[in-house]
Every structure is written in structure tokens, then in C-alpha cells.
Amino acid sequence: MMLDDIEWRRTPAPVPYPQALAEMEARAAAVLAGDAPELIWLLEHPPLYTAGTSADPRELIDPRFPVYPTGRGGRYTYHGPGQRVGYLVLDLRERGRDVRCYVHALEGWVITALGRLGIEAFRAEGRIGIWTLDRGREAKIGAIGVRVRRWVTLHGFAVNVSPDLSHFSGIVPCGLADHPVTSIQRLRGTADLAALDAALEATVPAFLQTLCCAP
Length: 215
What we know:
By secondary structure, this protein is an alpha+beta fold. It has four helices and eleven strands; from the N terminus they run E-E-H-E-E-E-E-E-H-E-E-E-E-H-H.
């Protein structure tokens, strides 16, 4: 499906991380060359851990799943079934050339989409990602990890819809040992990837609008 000249792709079966990374890298090169449209890709991964550029090996507690180094910012994170991963290949050359603005807008998009599902999410000062209250305690429901190469974006976000939260215990998620992770299912009792996808699609125009400032 095309959305404002951006390909909106949703892959139902879990995609191996190396395959997704190769496809994302190839699309980024094509976007940079003007040979392909931008891409917003919604998918899941089989259980795995990824290590961002700031990953501390001491925070890999139990490598029970494959561990992949990656060029995105951040530390260790978990991906697996029941988690909606969004990879964005967007050209910031015509969208402001402002990485901080991009990350802020990405957080805002996910927060707005979660709001449509009855989840009150928010930013936390000094902590990248998407946060909410779980039984009165701040908990992380979504991670943000991006890379920008020659003003074309790679990687994106991950939102916990209904993953096995015990899988996060193999790492210190994003290096934040004092803060738990949560999910839509834990908060609401039920969860549906398709419902989150629909909320993301409905709110993506506003997200894109925030990136349309002149360079």
C-alpha cells in the first residue's frame, strides 16, 4: 500500500533479523539514490536481542536468544513475537535535517497511537522511549532506536503488544535496570497487533506533517 508516496508494508510472519536488516539497508540506499519510495515497515521478529552502539556487555545477562550487533543508537533490547516493530526508511533531506526533531516526532507518533487504544503513554525526561504507568510505577512499553545515514533513516521503534515479558530478563533493557517493561496485554488484559497497526496508520499523517519543515 502507498501512503503519500511512502510504501506502508505489513509482514504477518516473523522476519529473521538479518533478512530485515538487509532489506532495510538496501531500501535506504535506493531512497538515497532516488530509485525507490520511502518505507514504513511493520513486522515482528523471532525471539532475539539486538545491541545498539552504546551496548554494555555486562548488561547481557543471559544470551538465551541470538544476539545481533546493530548500528542503531541505544543499548540492548529484545524483539520477539507479540511485539510490533516499525522500521522507517525516510528521507530527512526534505524533512528538516534534524535528528532530534525526528526522534521526538517518532515518540509522539507512537504515544498518540497508543492513546487511541486507551493507553496513556508519555516521554520521560532523560530516557528515550515510550513510557506508561503500570500499577503506579513507570514502565517502558516502547523502545526507540534509530540511525540516520546521509539523512536517510533506518531502524525505528518497537511496541510491546503481547510479548513474553520474561524474555526481557536476559538483558538490562536499554540499560535501565530500575525500570520494568510492560505491554498492552498486561495493562488492558487483551491486545491485538492489528488494532495497534490501525492506530499507527490513522495517526501517521500527523507524524509526517511534523517532519515537513523546510531544511
